[in-house]
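Entry for the shared binder. Reason: the reviewer on the internal report wants the predicted structure included alongside the sequence.
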Amino acid sequence: MKILVVGSGGREHALCWAISRSPLCQKLYCAPGNAGIESVAECLPIPADKIYDILAVCHLHAIDFIVIGPEVPLSLGLADELRSEGFSVFGPGKAAALIESSKGFMKDLCTCAGVPTAEYERFTDAAEAKAYAQAKGAPIVIKADGLAAGKGVTVARTLDEAFAAIDDALVKKVFGDSGESLVIEEFMEGEEVSFFALCDGEVALPFAAAQDHKTAYDGDRGPNTGGMGAYSPAPIVDAAMQDRIMREIIEPTVKTMREMGCPFTGVLFAGLMITKTGPKLIEYNVRFGDPETQVMIPRLKSDLLALLYATSKGMLDGIAIHWHDYAALCVVMAANGYPGEYKKGSVIRGLDEANAVPDAIVFHAGTDRDAQKHVVAAGGRVLGVTAVAPTIADAQNLAYQAVDQIDWPEGFCRRDIGWRAIAKMKAA
C-alpha cells in the first residue's frame, strides 16, 4: 500500500518508523513531517490542518491508507472528508473526536456510560465558576473545555490558583475559543497512567499502557507541559488492572458512542488515575499519545500497519497483539523556556552519535533544516531520545547515554524520567 501519515511530531516519527518496516508498505509519505521523519518517509510540505490540500495530495499520489496523527485535523473532520472520497483512514470522525475536543462532552458521555470519573460541573461565567470552586475548596482542577495543546489544565493547590486559572480562560481569554467554557472537577489522588485501546466501532482491543511525566523539571516540579518523557510498560497496569480498565472504562465508552450514532474508530487514549478504589478516567484523547507512542511502538512485535488497517476496516475481532519482552524509556529534549516562550532555529549536533548508542533511537518532535541543511529546533518539544532494554532502569541508563551525545546548549531535559517505576523496583 501507499501510506500517508499526517503530522509532524515525535508521535508521527515513531509511527512512520514502524510503518516503514511493514511488508505491507510500498511507499510512505508524511505531511508535513520533520527533519527526522525524512529518513523513513517522503515529506510533503502540507500542514496537518489543511484538509483540502491533504485531500488533493491523496488523489495525486493514489494513497491507499491515511493515518492521522494529531488531534486538530481529527477535530476538524479530516477523517470524514477523506472517507467521503473513498479513502481508508485510521482515526475517528469529527463527531467521535468530540470526546477529546470538548472536555464537557467527554464528561457528559462518562455520565451516560457509567464510566468512573471525577465529580464535575461546567461553566461559562467566571463568577459562577469561582463560587463553585470556593464551595468545593482546594485542591481542585480547572480545565479549558477545548483543545489547548496540553496547556489548558490547572491543578490548583490553592483557591487563588483556581481563581487565576478561571480568569485566564473566561476573562483574559488566553486559550481563545478553547477556553470559552470550563470544566471544574474534583482533585483525584492516585497514580496517573496512559492506557491505549484500538477500536473499530464495535470491538475494543487493549494496546498498551505507558506513564508520562507532565511537569517540566526534575522531581515533578514546574509548569505542566505536553510531556517531558515516558516509559512502558507501566508497572501499575498488570493483567488484572488491564481487564478492569477495559471492562469499566473502555468498553462502556465504545458501546455508548455506538448507541449515540458516533461509533469510535481509531485509538482511544484514556488518561487514568489509579485510585485506592480503582481506575478513574481523567480525560480521553482520540489519537496516540506523545511521548507515549515513542515508548510503545519500539516494544511492539506485531505489524503496526496491519493493526491500524484492521482497525479502520472493522476487523479487530479475533486479533491478538504481540509485544517484545523488554521496556522502553523516552527522554524529551525541549527548547530552553518551554513551555513558555522559546526560540527556534538553534542548531542541534550529535544526533548521529546519539543514534549510535546501542538500542537507542532519537525521534524528532519539532525539527527542521536550515539553509545549510543543519538540523535545527522548530518547536518547544524537539527530540524524544528513546532506548529499549530488559528493565526500565536499564532503558533509562541507555537513554541518558544517548542524550549526553547530543550537543544542543539551547535545549534542556529532565534527568529523572522513570523515577517512579525504578523506585518501585528497588523497593521490591
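Summary line for the report: The longest helix spans residues 239-259.
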